[in-house]
Amino acid sequence: MQFKRILLKLSGESLMGGKQYGIDETRLEEYAQQIKEVARMGVQLGIVIGGGNIFRGLSGTSKGFDRVKGDQMGMLATVINSLALSSALTASGQKNRVFTAIRMEPVGELYSKWKAIEAMERGEIAIIAGGTGNPFFTTDTASALRGVEIEADAMFKGTRVDGVYTADPEKDPTATKFRAITFDEVYERGLRVMDLTATTLCKENNLPVVVFDMDSHGNLKKVIDGEDIGTLIHL
Q1: Phi then psi for 12, rounded to 5 degrees?
Q2: DSSP SS3 for 202
Q3: 64, 116, 125, 135: most buried by Cβ count inside 10 Å?
């Protein structure tokens, strides 16, 4: 599979690196280098980052937060992470632009499909922050939505795990990894790769998803080059 344009989903938790909370500057720099390397290959990138290293709306609800306000706090957490990545990319010499799902200039430009595509075609990386701009949606769903909107060839989900397994490999040592799996199989097996809304969006719009370990340096380029190191989810 050749990739002209991809949507890269990064987890907020991964940005913590070795820390218990917040952003690990070393991990951030590693991500920026990997992303720059792929951009220099001519691949256009849109990026969506989660906010779980700062605040997760659902966990706030269990502690008494109003769900809508909790999710809005989570959206702002993704903006903080997006600005951090933007800063690291700029420092590495890679042009980029931050878009936000909610109007908040001068922090970022209000997102629209057309502006994001124009930026990518100019060689800039489009960092799309603020989730979908609505409560009750995860950043996985935001990634699927943005991936479909920007007409990406695939969505790359960078996680701590190197693919999709029959069970959680961090808890079950007998879990085995899939090289490829269909969206329907993900449903049937109840695998928690993404939430159901995100999985359905990808399936209905035929947006393949590649799940891989982003925390091992150089893996983003390897998976773009077609090396068999992740799991492909397809129709």
Answers
A1: -60, -40
A2: helix
A3: 125
Rounding to the nearest 10 degrees, give the CA dihedral for residues 219, 222, 227, 230. Answer: 30
> pLDDT tens across 111-159, in order?
999 999 999 999 999 999 999 999 999 999 999 999 999 999 999 999 9
DSSP for 72-116, written as a single string = HHHHHHHHHHHHHHHHHHHHTT--EEEEESS--TTTSEEP-HHHH
Report the length, in residues, of the chain. 235
**Angle separating helix axes 196-204 and 139-149, nearest 10 degrees:** 10
- CB contact at 8 A, 77 and 159: no
pLDDT tens across 81-109, in order?
A: 999 999 999 999 999 999 999 999 999 99
pLDDT on residue 1: 62
**pLDDT surpassing 70 at residue 225:** yes
Return the C-alpha torsion angle 139, 140, 145, 150, nearest 10.
Answer: 90
Tokens 């949606």 — which residue?
137
pTM equals 0.95
CATH of 5-234, one of 3.40.50.12780, 3.40.1160.10, 2.40.160.40, 3.30.420.40: 3.40.1160.10
8 Å CB contact between 125 and 117: no
